C-alpha cells in the first residue's frame, strides 16, 4: 500500500489545471493505485491526482460500493441542479451545501488506455464533478454563493490545520456531515 500525503487548501497545486495523460504505462498504474489507497485510507468518496501533488488528469472514486478511476474525463451534465452537503479531503472537517448537476455522464479512459463511461446520479454525479473540478484547479468552495463562500473562508482560516506547513492532516469522517470527496 502506498498512502500519499493529501495537499491542503492553500497549496498551489490545487489551483493549477492538470495536464492530460498521454502515456498509459506502469507509472500511471502506480499513480492510480496510490490514489486509490490514499482515498480509501482517508477515507473519502474521491481523490484527484493534484490532491497528492501530481498534475495529471486522473481521479479515483468509491461511491455506493463502486470503486473506480477515470483518466482525462469529459463531462456531460444534466441541467437539473441539487444542493447537498459537500466536503473535501483538501479542506478537512468542513462541509457546505454546494450546487451540482443531479446526473452526470463522464467519459475518459482507464489506466490501460481503454475507453470508460461512468453514468451516475446524486452522490456519484457529485463526486465526478468535484474530482473533475480538482483537475481544472477549481475547489468546491468556488461553487458556493458569495455569502456561503465568505463563511467557508472564515471556517478555513479558523480550522486547526489552517496555515500548517505540513502538507496533510488525517480526515475524520465524524467531523463533517458531508462526504469528503
Word description of this protein:
Removes the formyl group from the N-terminal Met of newly synthesized proteins. Requires at least a dipeptide for an efficient rate of reaction. N-terminal L-methionine is a prerequisite for activity but the enzyme has broad specificity at other positions. Fe cation binds at residues 88, 130, 134. InterPro entries: Peptide_deformylase, Peptide_deformylase_sf. GO terms for molecular function: metal ion binding; peptide deformylase activity. This is Peptide deformylase. The protein is an alpha+beta fold and 181 residues long. It has a single domain (12-175), classed as Peptide Deformylase (Alpha-Beta Complex), CATH 3.90.45. Helix content is 24%, strand content 30%. It contains 3 helices and 7 strands. Strands 1-2-3-6-7 form a 5-stranded antiparallel β-sheet. A two-stranded antiparallel sheet has the order 4-5. A hairpin with a 5-residue loop joins strand 6 (103-109) and strand 7. The radius of gyration is 15 Å and the shape is globular. The model is unreliable at 165-179 (pLDDT under 50).
